Amino acid sequence: MKMVNWINTIIFALTIMFLASGCAKEEAPKLKSDVLSPSSGIPVVSTSEITNVTLTGATLNGTINPKGLSTVVTFQYGNTKSYGSAIAARQNPVTGDSTITVCADITGLIPDTTYHFRVKAENPIGIIYGSDREFNHSIFHLYNVAAMEATNITATGVTLNGSVNTIGISTKVTFEYGTTTSYGNSVTAIQNPVSGNSITNISAEITGLTPCTTYHFRVKAENSLGTIYSDDKEITVGIPIVRALAATNIKRTSLTLNGTVNANGSPTIVTFSVQLPGKDVHKRIVTAIESPVKSDSITHVSVNISNFTNYDTIYQMGWYIIEAKNCCGVVYSSQISFWLPN
Fold first, then answer.
1. Is the CB of residue 114 less than 8 Å from the CB of residue 136?
2. What integer pLDDT is reported at residue 36 of this predicted model?
3. Distance (Å, whole) CA 340 – CA 318
4. For residue range 203-244, what is the model confidence (pLDDT) as tens digits?
């Protein structure tokens, strides 16, 4: 009886071992292609600044590296970070393993309204979003109104210059001017009214100004959406413009000094201050042949210097400047050097 029990025990143990070995399955080795690295197929996206802003639209921009998988790219946008609207990128879908620039044009924007947007990238691995960006679609950021340097300056007149981009809206453009930043006077631009979606140069001529007086001016742009102004510029009428030119007819004991002066309509006394070469100071102040200059255009001025012999050949270099003086004040040119021959 004991023998039977012992045999039954052995048979039961062998049965259990057989069943266990029969249920076990050998796990197939994983292929290298079945194991994805943490970054494989996960796109890298970035949201960039907007461009091409118009009255009702803009271009949304971003970049994406698809990391080897075909990826659908869209832009989400709206008045809040909940967005609410979406548009496919022009480059959609994107593939490859390098950074690609993506963009999309949106319309129907409301002026003077804040918008949010971001990039969305979707592929079989999942969805990745770019960071949120915000822009204010303000009409006051679009005009690009600017005052530029005045030209054609005379004793009593000047041409005022500026530029404006009216982003497609017909706009009245004027210049405000006066002796203070309160202005008090205005003149309509020659190009008024201005429209279109590109920068337009504008100008206006004013007369009756007081000689030797500083004036302020700025551009004013006005349409159905509001009024904006450029920064302030200033100009003094009647101030002469002077430039020294190279000496000519240079000989051992003589030479001709040259320059140009625009008197801007105010009678202007023009003199040359010349330092002749020598061991001692040999400075002369001589009046230009054309002085006084009265025109409001560029006038050539000159003077002949001669009869100087008291210099050593060691000291052959001299120099001169031009002084232009009228009721507005005194203006000097830059210095011009010359060399005398042995």
1. yes
2. 40
3. 8
4. 999 999 998 889 999 999 988 767 889 999 999 888 888 999
Distances (CA, A) of 65 to 74, 88, 126, 200, 283: 14, 16, 14, 40, 73
Ranges of CATH 2.60.40.10 domains, the chain: 39-138, 143-236, 241-339
193 CB burial (10 A radius; 0-12, 13-18, 19+): middle
Task: Compute the distance between CA of residue 178 and CA of residue 160 in angstroms, rounded to an integer.
Answer: 12
Residue among 86, 328, 133 nearest 213 (CA): 328
Ranges in the chain, pLDDT < 50: 1-4, 6-7, 10, 14, 16-38
Nearest to 286 by CA among 270, 264, 308: 270
Residue 61 tokens, joined: 């921009």
2-11: buried (b, 16+ CB within 10 Å) or exposed (e) per residue?
Answer: eeeeeeeeee
Assess whether the previous peptide bond of 93 is cis (omega < 30° from 0). Answer: yes
C-alpha span between 210 and 238 (Å, rounded)? 9
pLDDT at residue number 143: 63
Domain spanning 241-339: CATH 2.60.40.10: yes
